[in-house]
Each structure stands twice: as C-alpha cells, then as structure tokens.
Amino acid sequence: MCRVVDLRQAVLAKNDASAHELRTNLAARGIAVVNLLSSPGSGKTALLERELLRARERDVPVAALSADLATENDAARLARSGVPVKQVLTDGLCHLEAGMLAGHLDGWLPDDTRLLFVENVGNLVCPASYDLGETLRVTLASVTEGEDKPLKYPTAFGLAHLVVITKTDIAEAVEFDEAAFRANVEQVNPGVEVILTSARRGQGVGALLDRALAAVDGTPVHSPVMARQPHHHGHTHAHPKATGTMAHTHS
Fold first, then answer.
1. 8 A C-beta contact, residue 211 and residue 136
2. Are strands 235-238 and 247-250 parallel, antiparallel or unpaired?
3. pTM for the whole thing?
4. Of 40, 158, 196, 248, which has the fewest Cβ atoms less than 10 A away?
5. What pLDDT band is residue 91 in, cutting at 50, 70 and 90?
6. What is the C-alpha to C-alpha distance for residues 226 and 157, in angstroms, rounded to an integer?
7. How far is 247 from 236, CA to CA, in rounded Å?
8. What's the pLDDT tens digit per position in 157-188?
9. Angle in degrees, 0-180, between the axes of helices 2-28 and 98-105, rounded to the nearest 10
10. Residue 236 pLDDT > 60
11. What angle do CA 183, 187, 191 make, to 5 degrees?
12. What contacts 24+ positions apart, CB below 8 Å, involve 106-110?
C-alpha cells in the first residue's frame, strides 16, 4: 500500500512541477489557460465553439486544444470557429498531464494568444487531480446528469474556479432541480460561482470568455477550500510505459 501511495505522490509531484513551469512560461507571454472538465456528452464542445466564435467577434486572440482517447471529431467542430485548434489523442490515457500539454504547445501556440482553452478528456475522475498550469479551472455539467453530480465527483467540482450548467434549454423537460444542484455545489466548493448556459439558445454564451479575460487581467479567481487542504488529490492513474504496468490509486 505504501508503494502505491508513494507512486501516487511522485506522479502528482512531477505533474505539479511541470504545471508550475508551464504556468510561469505562459504567464510571461501573457497567456492564460482555461481547463475545461466534464463528463462525456455534457455539451462542452458545443459551448466552447460558441465561446470561440464570440472571442473572434471581439477580436480576442484565442486558441483551443481538444483531448480525446480517439477521433478528431471535437477538433473539427471547434475549427469551424476559425481560431487555431489542435487535437491531442491520448492513446487510452484518461487525462491530460501538464508535461504532455506543454509538449503539444511547443512550436504551435501563436505568439499573440491571450487565452488557451483546453477541452480535457471527457470524464470527471482522472483529469480532476491534474493541474495543467491553468489560470481558470471550469467544471461543467448538463441538466441531464442529475443534481447530485457534485457530490458524486467532489474533487472535480471541489477544485473548480467556476461551475457551468449546460443545456438549460431542456431543464424543464428533464425536471432539473437547479436549487438542489447549486446546494450540492456549495457543499463541496463554498462560494464558487455557478453560471447557466445553453449553446443552442445562446444563454450565458460569452460569460466563460468574460471570466477568463478577467482572470488574465488580474482579477482574483475563486479560491476553493479543497485546494487549500493538503493531499486534496483524490485519484491518480500512473501508466509507466517502460514496464507496461499500470497503478491505480483511489482515496
């Protein structure tokens, strides 16, 4: 058990060091990273496409990187916005890591970029424990996923600087209880802002861009209570390719 815990801590420590270096380097260039986490099918790509279009309308230089286990479908959708887009295929890895992200940005990210939106791999477990050097971490959930989502995935919601509810145009049809969802978010992440969005109807479109630009300009982001606690990382997958072994740790 000690070896598993030690491996978990070593993996996270290495990632945190890479994240710190990436954050420092990008900040020196005036670039901020927005890390988007959600379950598959949350509407993350649809909302991000609308946000990228809004950025173009406002002449804000942005770029987007989309991570998936397979296919380049999301990158193709995001590229319709006309901003620089890159697809990263993780070859089975269930999350992005800071070093991996830095490698994909090297030589690709345009010099005038102000915001880089990273569409993380679609799940709320593995990506939640990995800092990507982000300025703003956003966790999204659709109205179809249930009001108890924040309680089921406390790390993903507990470390968020911003929480976004998507697909609000069908909230009534699926009997979504907004008050219950907000209460559950507040339980795991007191004081975090929750915004309502519908990519289809345009509700809340631009709010994510506004919050990201404010962070770039120095407006303090929300400070999650969980982020101030030691050993807050709850899930780690280490995949040492050299040995072909896989270690899983959960807390």
1. yes
2. antiparallel
3. 0.88
4. 40
5. confident
6. 10
7. 8
8. 999 999 999 999 999 999 999 999 999 999 99
9. 30
10. no
11. 85
12. 108/84, 109/31, 109/63, 109/84, 110/61, 110/63, 110/84
